[in-house]
Design brief:
Chain A: Its main location: nucleus. Chain A: Catalyzes the formation of N(7)-methylguanine at position 46 (m7G46) in tRNA. Chain A: InterPro entries: SAM-dependent_MTases_sf, Trm8_euk, tRNA_(Gua-N-7)_MeTrfase_Trmb. The complex is a heterodimer of chains A (368) and B (490). Chain A is 34% helix and 12% strand. Chain A has 368 residues and is of the alpha/beta class. In chain A, strands 3-2-1-4-5-7-6 form a seven-stranded mixed beta sheet. The longest helix of chain A has 28 residues. The termini of chain A are far apart. Helix content of chain B is 12%, strand content 38%. The radius of gyration of chain B is 24 Å and the shape is globular. Classes of the chains: A alpha/beta (368), B mainly beta (490). At the A-B interface, helix 6, helix 7 and helix 8 of A face strand 13, strand 16 and strand 17 of B.
């Protein structure tokens, strides 16, 4: 037996320390030095995963069997008799937002303060990337708890607003214009991120910078799960449970032979429609123009109702695309197109971003 | 001298026609039709089109022939079989028919073709169409008006296609869907950045420009009319079409089961993209789902779990878990088939397990519970079941090649000196319906005639490798089980 390569060893060591340093919810013990966020370089993984392979996935038998309590300790129902079918504690509210293929979690971290009372989950198929995000969320939560306890003891409020999302909520008009640019002029390069007050564009350091402000929600409302959503989405979410689904910079699967592996397809859209409540939104963003058209095609965007109803019906009945004005008013669009790791990478490489958002319509009436 | 084996009947389908009672059967690469009353073989398919003169024609249309007729001709057919070139498929895993018995539908294995036949009272099979599906069909169903075939495949998709392809209308081009092929690469230097990827992109661009010059544009996908209705990202194993009467008008549903433990309840076409609910409760793959015609509010599902689940499928609610084996630590269970039928006023549910010579028998109670009854013991593994409701009889095809209780071990060829048992028929014993159900053989003359006629021969000298292949063709479901793998999987 050859020992594992040095890189693997270093990774394992680092990760062990990282998880040990951030044991969940144990910030009250002595308050050591500042909790560090994990470093991405120890968690890199090949960008593609085969969605058709079985992997070794853990997924609940049904949504009623899902143990959310361990993911959202701050939202556990105080009544211990309230348990789900698997015997774990229930939450005070349901998970409402899902980021499919959340990667390193930029969107979740960006959205967490924006919607502090909404529970969000990121789903990622790659083990290492998920490890990173789980550690990152734990560290963020621990940091927030430290800050809060510091604040209550010294009663001096920390008002440095270096946090980008904080800035965004204070300047909604800025985000609106950014979103508009991203949607109305997709073929143009969006250079807005350089104007936003991000202090770092280096991919290796951007997330390791500590937040120094107290963020609404304290990152208690985000979590991440390893899953293959193409197969097991209905195991996690009940009918009409979700208000938003994000699909950000999905694996483009360039080869035609691999198109079945794409996360957006007409048949999968039916599953997303099942989990989305009427009025709920499905966000997509990609830097691949062909994929953008693929998305529009698979939502039957641009087809007239006549031709659709003529044949076998389609998901066109279930979704409508949002107008550019509506996109401009949605702060989530800005977070999606600026704060995810992929969007930063696209900006660095001066690529294009294509946004399409769809609203879930009411179920059609039964045919006569 | 070693006696050759006979291909067992993979599918058995009873067909009620206005003037005739037929039994449609698939054995190896062949399709046979029998009279369900006399057991006389009426026709076989495929015919030998290019057969030489001295060999007798295979297809038989004689209804009133002598008793020895089918036997002799059957033997001749087998000789014939060896002489001619083998067809493109080696098994016919799906056989079904319209309820009026006018059309039969069969799916041939390797060439993935859906074949529609016109059936006659004399049992003759006339192939009307063959449509090669893009992926191997795993289940087919007919809509309630019986003009549309629904086909669930191993890719996870359900397509609809007309029973009788329209010839006047040119084939509708498939939707610009997965087939949409680009003439130029989708990637650009804005989306790929590494050296290797950029080089690959350069190559693709070069190739694309060449292709354009040649003007060659490969069309992908079948050319006949078909529509994609719904899809799982998992292998579909079974599908049921249900039509429920409602206050105002009929409501239709498509129920699909997959390898990843899901049963999806979708609306029927044209709203198959509306998912009504899921039935989630299995921990292993699902192989069969059954909605009894006499109680369409219930769904019975089984697969790699050692239990069945009875569902209120419209609400996605599990009602009962029914154990299939007494000792839960026993060997792994694979449900081969679930059939629901009424015999007298008994509401029966019959369940066959892979490699089991017992046909499990339950009665469906008013609350949806399944009450175990005495199972039917057979001479070989149960393969397929078809009920004759008006005769209170069920036909059961059994595996004549493998030893009872095994999906691998072949019988000693000497034991098949007498005509092997391919099919058996049973009916409830008189007066046994009250307390506990007991079964007795029925229609002995018919099953004897069918068994005597045999089917396609499998040489006793078949090599082990080929034997394993044949085993896998007949008992494919156990392959669906997920195997725990060690190490990291990425």
């Amino acid at each position: 037996m050859t020992p594992p390569p040095a890189k693997r060893q270093k990774r394992d060591e680092y990760r062990k320390q990282a998880t040990a340093a951030n044991p969940e919810g144990s910030s009250e013990t002595g308050l050591p030095t500042r909790v560090k966020l994990p470093k991405k370089k120890f968690y890199r993984q090949r960008a593609h995963a085969n969605p058709f392979s079985d992997h070794q996935l853990q997924y609940p038998l049904s949504p009623a069997h899902m143990d959310w309590a361990s993911h959202f300790p701050a939202y556990v129902n105080p009544d211990p008799t309230q348990t789900n079918l698997a015997g774990t504690r229930k939450l005070l509210k349901d998970v409402e937002i899902v980021d499919i293929g959340c990667g390193f979690g930029g969107l979740l971290v960006g959205l967490a303060p924006l919607l502090p009372e909404t529970l969000m989950v990121g789903m990622e198929i790659r083990v290492s990337v998920l490890d990173y995000l789980t550690t990152r969320i734990q560290a963020l939560r621990a940091q927030q708890q430290q800050l809060q306890s510091n604040q209550s003891s010294t009663s001096t409020s920390n008002t440095t607003t270096t946090d980008t999302t904080q800035a965004a909520t204070e300047a909604p008009e800025a985000s609106a214009t950014a979103a508009e640019e991203a949607s109305t002029t997709p073929s143009m390069e969006t250079d807005t991120p350089t104007e936003t007050p991000t202090t770092n564009n280096d991919p290796n350091t951007d997330n390791t910078t500590d937040t120094t402000t107290i963020v609404p929600g304290g990152y208690q409302n985000i979590t991440a799960i390893r899953s293959n959503t193409m197969k097991f989405f209905p195991n996690f979410f009940a009918k009409h449970q979700l208000s938003k689904i994000f699909i950000c910079f999905p694996d483009p699967h360039f080869k035609a032979r691999k198109h079945k592996a794409r996360i957006v397809s007409e048949t999968l859209n039916a599953e997303y429609a099942y989990a989305l409540r009427p009025g709920g939104l499905l966000y997509t963003i990609t830097d691949v123009e062909e994929y953008h058209h693929w998305v529009l095609r698979h939502f039957r965007e641009g087809e007239d109702e006549e031709s659709v109803h003529g044949a076998a019906g389609s998901v066109k009945e279930l979704f409508e695309r949002l107008t550019d004005e509506e996109l401009a008013q949605d702060p989530c669009v800005r977070v999606m197109s600026e704060e995810t790791e992929e969007s930063k990478k696209v900006t660095r490489n001066k690529g294009n971003k294509y946004v399409a958002v769809f609203r879930r319509k009411e179920d059609p009436v039964w045919p006569a | 001298m070693a006696v050759n084996f006979q291909h067992p009947f993979q599918c058995v389908q009873y067909v009620q026609r206005p003037q005739a009672k037929l039994l449609l059967v698939s054995a190896g690469p062949r399709l046979y039709s029998y009279s369900a009353e006399t057991g006389q073989r009426l026709a076989s398919w495929p015919q030998d089109t290019g057969s030489s003169d001295q060999e007798p024609p295979e297809k038989k249309r004689k209804v009133s022939s002598s008793e020895s007729g089918p036997l002799e001709e059957g033997k001749a057919a087998e000789k014939n079989e060896k002489a001619k070139t083998a067809p493109a498929w080696s098994n016919i895993p799906i056989v079904t028919s319209t309820s009026n018995g006018e059309y039969a539908i069969a799916v041939t294995g390797e060439d993935k073709c859906i074949r529609v036949f016109q059936l006659q009272d004399d049992g003759s099979l006339n192939q009307l169409s063959e449509r090669a599906m893009p992926k191997r069909p795993s289940s087919i169903a007919l809509t309630s008006d019986e003009t549309t075939i629904l086909c669930a495949d191993k890719f996870g998709d359900v397509h609809s296609l007309p029973l009788i392809p329209t010839t006047d209308k040119p084939a509708v081009a498939p939707r610009p869907n997965r087939e949409a092929k680009l003439s130029h690469p989708a990637a650009t230097n804005l989306t790929v950045h590494t050296k290797g990827n950029l080089r690959a992109l350069e190559q693709q661009l070069l190739l694309a420009s060449k292709k354009k010059e040649d003007g060659e544009e490969r069309s992908v996908g079948p050319s006949f009319e078909h529509h994609l209705l719904l899809g799982h990202v998992s292998l579909l194993t079974d599908m049921v079409f249900v039509s429920l009467p409602s206050e105002t008008h009929k409501r239709t549903y498509i129920l699909t089961a997959d390898r990843d433990e899901h049963i999806r309840v979708s609306r029927g076409p044209p709203q198959a993209h509306v998912i009504e609910t899921y039935c989630l409760g299995h921990t292993a793959f699902i192989s069969k789902i059954c909605v009894p015609q006499y109680a369409p509010e219930y769904l019975i599902s089984g697969g790699g779990d050692n239990y069945l689940v009875v569902w209120n499928w419209a609400e996605g609610r599990a009602l009962h878990k029914v154990p299939l084996v007494e000792n839960s630590s026993a060997a792994e269970v694979v449900v081969r088939g679930i059939w629901a039928t009424t015999i007298g006023d008994l509401r029966l549910v019959l369940v066959a397990l892979d490699g089991s010579p017992k046909l499990l028998c339950f009665t469906l109670e008013a609350d949806g519970a399944l009450k175990p009854q005495t199972p039917i013991d057979l001479t070989g593994n149960v393969l397929a079941v078809t009920p004759l409701e008006e005769d209170n009889t069920i036909f059961i095809s059994v595996d004549s090649i493998r030893t009872a209780g095994s999906i691998q071990e072949w019988r000693a060829s000497s034991s098949s000196l007498t005509p092997p048992t391919l099919i058996e028929a049973f009916r409830p014993q008189q007066g046994s319906e009250g307390s506990s159900l007991a079964w007795e053989p029925a229609l002995k003359s018919a099953t004897d005639a069918i068994n005597a006629a045999g089917s396609v021969e499998v040489p006793a000298t078949t090599e082990d490798k080929r034997r394993t292949e044949l085993n896998d063709l007949l008992y494919a479901m156990s392959k669906l089980r997920k195997t725990p793998r060690g190490g990291d999987d990425e």
